[in-house]
Design a protein that fits this description.
160 residues, two-stranded antiparallel sheet, single chain, 7 helices, mainly alpha
Length: 160
């Protein structure tokens, strides 16, 4: 489906409120931004994928679909089940597809996992000793521990 305005680029369905009526538009994002530069709500409110049963309620937390349209925020994990169809349309409208095709985290090797565990253990030990030094008013030891903690944290950025 091509944009209704330019007829060149792939269109997305947008919803525009005009005089209290919802108007469905099939425009490419560039034409939509050019024709309607003001922002109404969040990105979720403008997508037709987010148009659905306004009075639908999540049985777990009580969030309504209308609240999601206004804020773009879901109340709990149960909302994903309650508003599944509408959310799938929204995700498809935003990303163009439902399946993730981007980068994935590299698999952690056993060696890297051991380094991370040692780093975290050392960091937590230093923090505990620093807290004890502060409680005991041993400020010289606290300064030394802070320095060690800073150095460890700088080294830890390379591990993560």
């Amino acid at each position: 489906m091509l944009c209704e305005n330019c007829g060149k680029r792939p269109a997305q369905k947008f919803i525009k409120n005009i005089d209290g009526r919802e108007l469905v538009l099939e425009l490419c994002p560039e034409c939509f931004r050019a024709l309607y530069p003001e922002k109404e709500g969040g990105a979720f409110a403008s997508l037709v994928g987010a148009v659905g049963r306004e009075d639908a309620v999540c049985p777990v937390c009580g969030t309504t679909f209308g609240e999601f349209r206004r804020t773009g925020l879901l109340g709990c994990a149960g909302c994903y089940r309650a508003f599944r169809e509408e959310l799938l349309s929204t995700v498809r409208g935003v990303q163009g597809k439902l399946r993730h095709t981007g980068k994935r985290p590299e698999t952690q090797t056993e060696e890297r996992y051991d380094r991370m565990r040692a780093y975290i253990t050392r960091r937590e030990t230093l923090r505990g000793r620093l807290e004890e030094a502060m409680r005991g008013h041993d400020y010289a030891a606290a300064r030394r521990l802070q320095r060690e903690l800073r150095e460890l944290t700088a080294d830890g950025e390379e591990i993560e």
